[in-house]
Amino acid sequence: MSKLSDTVKALINASHARPGYTPSSAGVQTALTRFASDAAEKKVGLPAWVTLSTAVSATLNCPEAMTQIFHLANSTPTPNEQRTPVQNAELIREVGLKCISFNGIPRSINTLGAFRSSLPDDVGSQLSTTPTRELTPSNLELRKKDGLALWDSVYVGFERKLLDKLAHSHPDLPVHILNGHYSNLLSNPRGMPQPAKVGRVLTSLVAIACLRAQTGVGPQVVSHIFGLRKAYDNGDAHAEGEEPVEGGAWLATEDGNIWILENIDKLVNVISGGEGTTFAPGLRPKL
After folding, report:
1. Fewer CB near the last or first residue (10 Å), C or N of the chain?
2. Are the CB atoms for 261 and 212 separated by under 8 Å?
3. Stretch 151-165: mean pLDDT, rounded?
4. Spatial contact of 152 and 174, defined as CB atoms under 8 Å apart
5. What is the pLDDT of residues 101-145, one digit of tens each?
6. Which helix (H) or strand (E) holds 116?
7. Which residues contact 100 (CB under 8 A, 6 or more apart)?
């Protein structure tokens, strides 16, 4: 197999291309602590604020912030439930996995790998090693129905019209979105115990945090803000198999929406050192 020349390797790793992770800082720890404290004052529980901050950190390619979230979650009192470090690590991993649907595969590969490597041995050794999303001939049609049901829940009122619009752009676009994402990633697996469950409400929070942190996708942020509201308006947040999300009903209100968006912006500003998203605007001019 041929080898890359020094010139090609240098271009790939040029500083203006920002080829590596976004580093964290003490300022990020302060911002995360403030965010968790504010969430507690608003009666927003740990799973919700961990989900939001993890999705922002993954979007900005900052696994060090994900590790800071893990340690902060472990030190945060949760009077309504007893949580272990393993549970918190599994929640962060599941959020990072679902970020694939909004950020793409590479960032989830890199951030989840770095996060896993950062965990203490006594936590890492207890993490699940059993996959839960394997498709089989016996579950394929059921999983497709699960995906369509989640799509309908998020986009109710526009669900079929939007699928038609997507198909007009490319006939396989709705096929891939439904079967590759809503069916087998964003909807929760059936018939297997899950180490962490990111259900209907938390999945909407993942979507909002990723898309807002990316920038440039305002229409999709609007869709998922409405999707969060619909989870409560139509009762899907309380459907069979869904776990209650502390503070979720408030997050789905006008005030809660504002709080979510403003705090995502604050975290983006601190994690990025004021430079904003590392997505499309991430390529900097050569100095």
Report:
1. N
2. yes
3. 96
4. no
5. 999 999 999 999 999 999 999 999 999 999 999 999 999 999 999
6. helix 105-118
7. 108, 181, 185
Q: Tokens in use for 176?
A: 């891939």
Reduced to 3 states (helix: H, G, I; strand: E, B; else coil), residue 278 is coil
Burial label, 125 (beta-carbon count in 10 A; 0-12, 13-18, 19+):
exposed
Give the pair of three-digit tokens for residue 108.
């989830």
Residue type, 281: P
| Structure-token match 């970020």, residue found | 99
Q: Burial level of 8, CB count in 10 A (0-12/13-18/19+)?
A: exposed
Encode pLDDT of 192-238 as tens digits: 888 999 999 999 999 999 999 999 999 999 999 999 999 999 999 99
Q: How far apart are CA 95 and CA 58, in angstroms?
A: 9
Residue 11 DSSP one-character state: H
Q: Report yes or no: 106 and 217 within 8 Å, Cβ to Cβ.
A: no
On whether the CB atoms of residues 78 and 45 are closer than 8 A, the answer is yes
